[in-house]
Design goal:
The complex is a heterodimer of chains A (362) and B (152).
Chain A: H1 7-14, H2 21-24, H3 92-101, H4 120-137, H5 139-148, H6 156-181, H7 192-202, H8 207-232, H9 236-266, H10 271-289, H11 292-303, H12 306-312, H13 315-335, H14 347-350, H15 358-361
Chain B: H1 11-21, H2 25-30, E1 34-43, E2 49-58, E3 60-67, H3 69-72, E4 76-81, H4 82-95, E5 114-117, H5 121-129, H6 131-139
Parallel strand pairs in B: 1-4
Antiparallel strand pairs in B: 1-2, 2-3, 4-5
């Protein structure tokens, strides 16, 4: 394979006969002076002039920085996601900055020494929840990582945001694994139904499908679990874990919601496709809502004991169920996809959630 | 540090709260940037509602004083009765940074005694995105409330 090594150039440059074409004869915009804003020099600050123009369809499939002076014979990198609408969201520049500024360490920033001994059943419930979360969080790293190398470099800000998500999810997997192993318990049970939902995300045929299933549906549910976890935390350790994870997860959901909104604004005819994706995802979610390994630990943490949770029955999980479905419907609505009245969830699950049932929506 | 001297609720009370929260600039900056407008709504016994604005702009936090919802255009309104507010703040003053049961999240997750209200999903999701910063601000009502040590 020839890489085009120019031996003559080596000789000429050794004599001081530089080419200087890059210096004297370039087509990229020059004289740019981005001005830092209050928090420093942000992506939005440098999104100026020709550098701020993001093509609707990438003209090339290269890693060349958008706005650079690109040689004609650069190789084709084979990107398959070449339309801006496939990955973009109007908040992605700000979400990247926010992600970078709100990073944290599962080793240093959790007050591990403040863990308190728990009733064995409650510890088991916490460990089971930590097991599930450690399991599901990594798919939210695997999915963006699977697609990152397929996304055209002209949409580099979206790629950069997805890189922050990969790091966020690695940290979530880490922190829940650490929690399970830190207080006398251990890992609990991994279930086939959860694995099947993760497989649905990972095997999505398009980024659109996977993003809807993961960013909007799956992470929306996990966000509610994090919120509940922070509210039910038995010690400052769990409170800090769930609070910090909640912040990260809400960023990912904000990207997913606004990506869907951008996608549908550009091509409203895609609504039918997204409805189909979410129909399938909700069917899996219905199974997760009836999975003891998720429902029961949450109920026990809410009620304080197995006996109290049993006495409360479904009531123990009602707040969480209502929040998950209500928030999901609001996000779909904000994105421009009305799921009210067409949820693929059984009546027993959507009972009492405003707008969830067809007759209420009508 | 003594409890905030200004009466609650009042513009000066929220100003002092923000002044305390932002006194350690470096510690607050380690929590990260936030772009957010929170309306803190206090509902009196008569049902009268008073709204106080908190504006988060990058690393800056400003108490905008008494305002009305239309003018302030908050992303989220955190609303509770005067009794609920007084109880939450009293607990923090007496015990330090809120535990899970006395946190903004814990007190609003079930819709009682506080409600989180927003005109769209992005607003309510910002309440979750910036929870650490928000809680650190209200924890500053405590006599001794160091900003949590989350560092980059």
């Amino acid at each position: 394979m020839s890489l085009g090594l120019d031996l003559g150039y080596l000789e000429r440059s050794a004599r001081g006969e530089f080419d200087l074409g890059w210096l004297r004869n370039t087509d990229s915009e020059w004289g740019v002076r981005a001005v830092p804003s209050k928090t420093g020099l942000t992506l939005r600050d440098i999104s100026i002039g020709s550098y701020g123009v993001i093509p609707e369809h990438a003209p090339r499939r290269t890693m060349a920085p958008r706005g650079s002076d690109i040689e004609s014979d650069v190789p084709d990198m084979g990107y398959t996601v070449n339309d801006k609408a496939e990955v973009w969201s109007d908040n992605v520049l700000d979400l990247y900055e926010e992600a970078v500024s709100r990073q944290w360490s599962a080793t240093r920033d959790i007050p591990w020494s403040e863990l308190v001994p728990l009733d064995p059943d409650v510890e088991h419930a916490m460990c089971q929840l930590a097991t599930v979360l450690s399991e599901v969080e990594m798919v939210a790293a695997d999915f963006p990582a699977k697609w990152l190398w397929r996304i055209n470099h002209d949409f580099v800000e979206a790629k950069m945001f997805l890189c922050t998500q990969v790091m966020d999810e690695a940290r979530h997997t880490e922190v829940f694994r650490k929690r399970a192993l830190a207080n006398g318990g251990g890992l609990g049970r991994a279930t086939a139904v959860i694995e099947r939902f993760l497989q649905l995300i990972l095997d999505a045929e398009t980024y659109d499908e996977g993003s809807a299933l993961m960013h909007l549906l799956g992470e929306g549910i996990v966000l509610s679990l994090f919120r509940a976890g922070a509210a039910l935390a038995p010690s400052p350790v769990e409170q800090q874990i769930f609070r910090l994870c909640m912040q990260d997860e809400a960023r990912h959901v904000a990207y997913g919601t606004m990506h869907l909104r951008y996608r549908l604004a550009k091509d409203p005819s895609m609504a039918a496709d997204f409805h189909d994706y979410l129909d399938r995802g909700e069917e899996m979610i219905a199974m997760i809502f009836s999975t003891p390994e998720i429902v029961e630990p949450t109920a026990i943490l809410a009620a304080g004991s197995v006996e109290a949770a049993c006495a409360l029955g479904a009531e123990a999980g009602d707040v969480l169920r209502h929040q998950i479905i209500g928030d999901y419907l609001k996000r779909c609505d904000h994105a421009g996809l009305d799921r009210r009245g067409r949820l693929h969830l059984p009546d027993a699950i959507i009972e009492g959630v405003p707008g969830a049932k067809a007759e209420v929506a009508a | 540090m003594a409890p905030i001297a200004a009466p609650f609720p009042s513009g000066p009370w929220f100003e002092e709260l923000v002044a305390r929260a932002t006194a350690d600039t470096a510690a607050m900056e380690r929590l990260g940037i936030a772009e957010f407008r929170l309306g803190a709504e206090v509902v009196g016994a008569s049902g009268a509602r008073r709204l106080f604005g908190l504006e988060f702009d990058g690393y800056d936090i400003t108490a905008t004083g008494p305002t009305d919802e239309a003018a302030f255009a908050p992303d989220v309104v955190f609303s509770g009765s005067l009794e609920a507010w007084t109880e939450m703040i009293g607990w923090i003053e007496a015990n330090g940074p809120a535990d899970s049961a006395h946190s903004l999240n814990g007190l609003s997750i079930a819709g009682v005694p506080f409600q989180v209200r927003s005109s769209d999903a992005m607003g309510s999701d910002k309440f979750y995105r910036y929870m650490g910063t928000l809680q650190a601000v209200f924890d500053a009502a405590s006599a001794d409330a160091p900003v949590p040590a989350v560092a980059n």
